[in-house]
Structures
1.
Amino acid sequence: MTRLAILFAVSEIAPWVKTGGLGDVAGALPAALRRRRQDVRVLVPAYPALRQAFPDAQLVAELPSLAPALPPCRLLAADGNGLPLLLLDCPELYDRPGSPYLDAAGRNQPDNDRRFGLLSRVAARLGQAGSPLGWQPDIVHLHDWQSALAAAYLHYEGGAASVLTVHNIAFPGNFGREAIAALGLPAQAWSFDAAEYYGQFSFLKAGLQFSTRLTTVSPTYAAEILNETLGYGLAPLLRYRRSKLSGILNGIESDVWNPAKDPALTSPYDARRLNAKRPNKAALQVQLGLEVNDELPLLGVVSRLTEQKGLDLLLALGEGIATHLPAQLALLGSGDPTLEAGFRVLAERFPGRIACVFGFNETLAHRIEAGADIFVMPSRFEPCGLNQMYSLRYGTPPLVRATGGLADTVVDCNEETLADNTANGFVFAEPTAHALWLTLERATRTWRERSVWRRLQQNGMRGDRSWRRAADDYLALYERAVAERRQELAA
């Protein structure tokens, strides 16, 4: 196996700074590659949480202003649980409250073009001759719009091969035309075949146009974004570059998501000791104020509360869940204030049947995965999804809509799939409350057939959800990208 030098450029990284699946990937995939003896380093902005986590990070480089709008910055090296981190230290841009992208009031940071322009510019600089670290990667792996612009710098100035992974194409990173000069890109970047996107300057389009290779986080999502509905205006470009596009399914951290060793659980269990799962349901019911009743199926949800996630469909069925199935619902999440208010009203109307916790709590997320009977993910689109894979590993059959990574990981329970032992959950096609309701009815009926349910659980728990296969796929992709980049530069 070829040993490659690989730089990840990311805007968040679990467990220190995370808003979604990108953070999980940024923490897990580089670690999986290092286990394959690859030389991997991760570049991430030095947000307050990271500076607090690594107060002794060592200065390894000072960089002058690299573009008119970009201030000087420093690179600090830290050991992130065996993963080499490069903290991009620029207090002017990163030392502020809020999330990586939003201010404390939930609004987009007004200078996100500069904040992530700097991340992209530094990533590209490290991938070029004369890298300030004395270390130059063979591959610069970019993630979503926040670092995608690095591909444009590498295109115009030369340097390493680049791979851009699209975690969610719905966020293109659009800014005004003036940002092109401010960020040090040439005037020709403002063109249809560069970074111009419906009259705006798009970080993501630049990455899609200029990266050596493109990936998404599941095979089905790679196909879905080629159509106009889920391509968000970028489908024509993706179809043009489809020979460079791959869908590689994310994995999960098997050590973290392991019901046999999970410290958050009341009762650890595995596929051979599924009766030990039951105390986790009772403990979750007690914790959330639900009626302790093993004769009611318990539905679990851990999600951002948005229409993308289909939570408005579930909200519309709340009364029916509590009174007609009947079932219980344990929900953890935050997001759309209207959805939060709707679920809060449901919990007040049906105490003992519906419980909602707004915000995020990692420990409670693990307990819902273990304590629920059925995990519900009715997403309108879902590039990959991780919770359905956590659920499969925890013997909690997921109920999902057939989209993106959900379609790639969940096999609907029916006579044929039960016979060949591939059934592991429940799948519906149309993004409607009616389709969701029919599938909820089917799932709860099946839950009462305990021998069938045990087979579903064990089928799901047997699958390998680790990063091993994805890491191997990425290594093969990196080798192709390096060869292609060398040919391009030699031409």
2.
Amino acid sequence: MSNPLQKPELPKRFYQGVAVEETAAGFEIRLDGRPVRTPIRTLLAVPDRVIAEAIAAEWERQETHIDPSTMPVTRLANTVLDGVANDLGATRDDLARYAETDLIAYRADEPERLVARQAEAWDPLIAWVEARFGARVRTGAGVMHVAQEPATIEALRARLAEENDPFRLAAIHQMTTLTGSLIIALAVAEGRLGSDEAWRLAHVDEDWNISLWGEDEEAQARRASRLTDMRAADLFLRR
């Protein structure tokens, strides 16, 4: 009997060569000349050569077995082609929910140094939202829900409605879920922040705790993996 906790066996690498080919569908990834397909058999074709070459590099780096956990750009492209591209509205709606629970709206009430670090990191983004969208972001201390003004939520929804490229929209969604902040993700999408700076701002609380208690290897590995996903999303925004 198989162990339900045992990780599934990874498929063996079955190809020798990896190439990018431009076709009517976009830039396709080819393995020994054959096109790659997504988990639901959609043709893996992307609209940008840089993204395609990043995907090809991930396939090339696979050694004896194919490990999807080491292929963040491929995974995100699959998400776009199998999901987001088929229903942009659902992705926008999911993102809009983050407008009501954005990370940067929730502040510590102590200790004083953490309060100051949060303000230094996040208050400029609050000001940016007001200047860019004419919307005020309410903040609160503790874990109680901070209700945002309907006009603020509507302004952020309107910004999301402008995103009609499924690759960009998926990137914003991935950044939002990784950081817990739609505002941080939109700041990257608009060039207000670089992805590494956005990552730092999203981890003010975590870095504070690490400075006090340290960080174990497993937590470090999880964070490093999530950072690669952040950078994959950033690649999709730079096209």
3.
Amino acid sequence: MTSRRGLLRVAAGGAAAALAGCGKSGGALEVAVVWSGGELARFREVVRGYPEPVRVISAGDNIDALLRARDRAGARPDVAILPRPGLVAGYARDGWLEPLDTALGERYAPAWTDLITVDGVLYGVWVKAAHKSLFWHLPSVLTDQPDSWSGLLAMVESRAADGGPAPLAIGAADGWVLTDWLENLLASFDDQRLYQDLAAGKPLWDAWQVRDALAALARMWSVPGAFPGGGRRALLTQNEESVIQVVASRDACTVFEGDFVAGVARQFQDEAPRTFRFPAFAGRQPLVVGGDAAVVLRGSAGGRDLVRWLAGPDAFRPWIAGGGYLSPNRLVPLGLYPAGQPRELAAEVREPVDGLRFDLSDQLPGSFTGFDGQGVWKILQDFFAAVTTPSADLRRAVDDTVAQLNATAKKATA
């Protein structure tokens, strides 16, 4: 996938301009979504089950630009599906959203509902989740699964030196992949207050935990031969291609990313991939999740009914059957998921333990949150470029990155 959302990225400015003048189509309800490619096709299959016509608009990662253009043009969609709880909070406080029945929030664990409750009012329902603490590999290529961070580092160093496939594939062209690495390390610390403060936009990136996490990434990513074609090639590699490097071309032994990797792997595999969890770095095994929430735009006559339907137990049956889908909704029967890993992952994300943390970059305020070439995504790409340069000064790279993160946090919250 060229982005977390699928195969086709719509340029934000072009999409916003093209859609700003669009009105409602034949009385159909309009839903703006972040998905594209296969995910978009699955969602369109889902809404075909709704009793009224629904028109789906794909905005790609930068859905914010599309919604702002549509708002200026007076042509808001009825419903939007947002990838970041920070957007839900911002739109709610700007008066863009319709409040929802609080009973809908009872369908999710409090850890999920709290993220899209603003000043005591529920403004969204979660329609999709992502488990983002998995490494994927073919059992014929990687026989031993590291169970600790030091074990993973040892595997990377030994595999990089033996002249075979590179130990790691990484879609560094998608900045969110790099932030997911950092977030799992930060989620591994027993004291989770720092993670929450960073997500709230506080300029605390010079904390020792962040420095330790960045230093650990620098050491692993800087191993010569860690990635197929080296660091520069990795910066041109998008997430979908990194999966293909493991399951099809076998240029790499393992790739880290979420449960949605299965949807890509299924298209190419001649051997079923297996997974192991992101290993503990400092105290606990992390569980980082992401998610997409449906909200009703102000003034919509039919948006509430559609969102209520999307939060029901059966709406997403077609997507579950097609694979590559998890829901945090407790009403969705676990028996709908295939036995084995899909069902286990679904159970884990919907009944989160204390260690669960929501994607940090998706919670950051304003311009700090990730977009292509912007915010924390860009900062981590610059860090990756610095540490994968031959004879890199790793300590300086950490110092520069910490300073940039703090400066951007202060600017975003000013």
